[in-house]
Write a structure and sequence with these properties.
Elements lengths: L1 H16 L6 H13 L3 H13 L6 H13 L3 H10 L5 H13 L3 H13 L6 H8 L1
C-alpha cells in the first residue's frame, strides 16, 4: 500500500501538468488510496485542493479523508472533517469514532455514538464495536 499512494500522487501531478481538470472522483480515489496507507495529511490536502477549486467533495470523498485520519491516528482532523459535513452519516461517525479510539479518546467516542442517536442515525454493530474498542 505504501507505494500506491505515491503512485497515485504522481498520476494526479501528471494529470495536472497535462491540464486534465481535477474532478471530485479523481481526488476521491486519491483519498481512498491514502486512507489505506494511513496518509491522512495527503488525503486532507487533496480535499482542501478540491475546496480551493470550488468543487464540492461528496460524502464518499470526505469519508475517505476521515478514514485516512482514523488510520493515521489524527482524531482532531477527523473530528473537524465530521463537523464540516452538512449531513454526516453512519459511516462518517463510525470512522471518526475509530479515529478517537486510535487516539485513546474513549469519552469522545462515546459522545459521538450518542450524537448519532440524537441525530436519528441508527448505530450499527460496527459503530458500537468501534466505540467499545
Amino acid at each position: 500500500m505504501q507505494g500506491q499512494w505515491l503512485e497515485a500522487c504522481q498520476i494526479l501531478a501528471n494529470a495536472k501538468l497535462a491540464e486534465v481538470p481535477l474532478t471530485v472522483r479523481l481526488s476521491s480515489e486519491l483519498m481512498n488510496v491514502c486512507a489505506q496507507a494511513s496518509e491522512w495529511q495527503v488525503a486532507c490536502s487533496a480535499l482542501a485542493e478540491l475546496q480551493s477549486l470550488r468543487l464540492e467533495a461528496d460524502v464518499v470523498a470526505k469519508n475517505s479523508a476521515i478514514a485516512a485520519c482514523a488510520r493515521g491516528f489524527a482524531w482532531p482532523a477527523a473530528l473537524q472533517l465530521l463537523e464540516d459535513l452538512a449531513v454526516p452519516g453512519e459511516v462518517s461517525y463510525t470512522s471518526v469514532i475509530n479515529a478517537c479510539g486510535n487516539g485513546h479518546e474513549w469519552s469522545l467516542a462515546v459522545h459521538l455514538l450518542s450524537l448519532m442517536k440524537s441525530s436519528w442515525i441508527s448505530p450499527s454493530r460496527i459503530s458500537c464495536n468501534a466505540t467499545i474498542s
